[in-house]
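Incident review: delayed structure delivery

Summary: a single-chain prediction request sat in the queue longer than the usual turnaround. Root cause was a stuck worker, restarted by the on-call engineer. No data loss occurred. The affected request and its eventual output are reproduced below so the record is complete for anyone auditing the incident later.

Affected input:
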Amino acid sequence: TDATVTSAESSEFEVSIGSAYQISLSTYPGSASGGSGFSPQPVVAAKDVGGNTVVSYGDGQVTAYLVDTEQNPNPTGGILRGTTTRSMTNGLVSFTDLYINEAGSPYLLAFEFSGAELDGTTVVYSNPFAVGIGEGATMEMLETVTDGYTYGGVAFQVQPRIQVLDAGGNLLVDDSESVVEVTFTTNPSAG
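Output delivered after worker restart:
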C-alpha cells in the first residue's frame, strides 16, 4: 500500500512548571566518616508531575531518619544526628549538618515530607552507603602509670596505654603512622 505522509506545524506554545506533586532527592548524601558530616549534604526537592523542581513551593517540611527494618536493618544501631527536620523553601529542603557517629554499612536514609498535601511520592530513600572511620580526633587513656614513686632512669612499672578515636568515637585500628607525643603535666624535679 502506498501511504502519503504529510507534515504539519503547530502554533507556538509554552510548557510551564506545574504545581508541586511529589518529592525527590536532588542531591544524595555523600561520603562520611564517624562524627563528620556528609559531603555533600542531602537536598530534597518538590517536583511537579513532569519532574521539574517547583521553585515557588514553600509548604511543609522534610524529616530525615535512618531506616531500620527487617529488609534494611541499621547495621550498628547508630543515630542520625544534626538538624533532621527542615522546612521547604523555594522548592528545596537543604540539610546542612547531618552525620552519624558509628562507622558501619550499609546505612539507608529516608526523607519524609509532611505538613502539606502532595498527591505523589512523599517518602524517598538514599542509596545504601557506608560510614567509615575518620581521622584521629581524640585520645583515651586505657592504663595510667602506677601511683606512687618512680625512680629516675627506671621504666614505669605500668606503662601508659592510649587509644586514638575519630570524631565519632570509632577506634582507629589500622593507623600505624600517627605519632603520639607525651609530656609531663606535673614534673616536680624539672627533669
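Verification: The two ends are 108 Å apart (CA to CA).
Action items: add queue-age alerting; document worker restart procedure.
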